Amino acid sequence: MDFRVLGPIEAWRDGSRIRLGGPKQRAVFATLLLRSNQLVSTEHLTASLWGEDPPPTGCNRLATSRGVD
What we know:
single chain, alpha+beta, 3-stranded antiparallel β-sheet, about 40% helix, elongated
């Protein structure tokens, strides 16, 4: 599996591009890639998506696959 983070966030397997979802889902994926083999807190993910002013439901939205777009 190959990951590309310079330019568009992409993942490839056996020469085929893997669909990663919308912009927020790709941002979560990139955040996790940049901290591979490390624990990533919900607070860090929330801050990486929404900055200093996350929505009140930010933690809940992270828990659902559709909620971060």
